[in-house]
Amino acid sequence: MTAAPVGGTRHAHEAKGLGGGRVGLLGAVVIGVSTIAPAYTLTGALGPTASAVGDHLPAIFIVGFVPMLLVALGYRALNNAMPDAGTTFTWGSRAFGPWIGWMGGWGLLAATILVLSNLAGIAVDFFYLMLSQATGNAGIADLAANVPVNVAMCLVFMALACWVSYRGLEATKAVQYVLVGFQFLVLGWFAVAAFTRVADGSAPAGLSIDPGWFNPLGVGSFSAFAAGISLSVFIYWGWDVVLTMNEETQGERTTPGRAALSTIAVIVVLYLTIALAVLSFSGTGDGELGMGNADIQENIFAALAGPVMGPFAILMSLCVLASSAASLQSTFISPARTMLAMGHYGALPPQYARVSRRFQSPGYATVVAAVVASAFYAVMRVVSVNVLSDTITALGMMVCFYYGVTALACVWYFRGSWGGNATAFLTTCLAPLVGGLLLLVFFVQTAVDSMDPSYGSGSEIGGVGLVFILGVGVLGLGLVVMAVQYARRPGFFRGESLVVGRSTTDA
Fold it and tell me: 258 falls in which pLDDT band (50, 70, 90)?
């Protein structure tokens, strides 16, 4: 379905100089999976999610998958109508106007920049852990706690990832095939080994899979449920990178949407497999290897790799390192192309629209993303580890915000264009409407809950939780930057480059 826009001096999709046809369906799915970073995400999210919802971990992963699927249907419909590298920014501007579109784009930029800094930090931690395991020298792992050494190595990882991303999607794709393939190999090995130990009675918990684990109604309270969903949203986040590559994909109107749905489907199967393996092996108690043990929650695989995989535990360290490095590199795709589109349409300075002639990639925007993420990590790492971890916790709020805006933009853009077509009504109205509203509800609930000083690391300012202050602060900064851009470049905000419109074609 191609929707015809109403009015306007400029079409929503204009050539920006990016190289077309660089990525097919398989390549897009691999890049999407790499951005989600399953190994890195699971090692950090399994513990906190289990602490919030107990043994209903599989249920929360399934429930978290539902809004992602519903929102992805909306993304697919918008991409079919208006394939544009700006995604949330462009589609939000076309549906709701420049102000909401700009803030939607800011939400995406903020989320990806924050994650880039965290990914680089995780890569550093596992780099030194891997060296420690390989050499048998436990002291090497302690180098990750040395702030100057940590920051310096983080900047090296960031520069390498930026260099690969600058060279375009063909270089990115080649790197990701290797790193993602290795992740699936090791995670599959881990799951089989965990189930084997459960079967032979050597697992500390040794639990049989219980159908009650899949019941979301068994979660104790709505706050606990919302906290679990917020974490669940984070672990699925990143699949939308395949949409930001739409102008560089073979079949720009159809392939990105199919890749998004395929990526989410692959990830939910992998997550459920690992969740069941860890839950059966460890349980949710607070024993030495239980997921309720606060000492191991931040890095479950570091604690369980040895007991589960024996002498091959080093492979899990390599796996998480590969996962964080892969995601660090592929995550550059989204902010770079969003800033490219914002520069192209006049919402940011024109230099953001520069494209490398040699690699046909958004070179300037890629470098800016690397510099901002590096500076943020360096400052936050020096200030406090808690500030950095709480900022990443606040990331879930921004993800819910910009995903919700994009889903509702689909509903509003296609309003009244279904023409009695039940399938079109489902995919362009009902599904994105439910998904978008769910995510915005989780956004509000998380914002309210995070005002409690005990939320996240327990840090506070003036009795208000640091997670809330950081989340609201980042969104508030977006309003300030938007006001500055309005003063300098009012044309975009007057609708001169992206005009508000709606579909005039039956969906």
Answer: very high
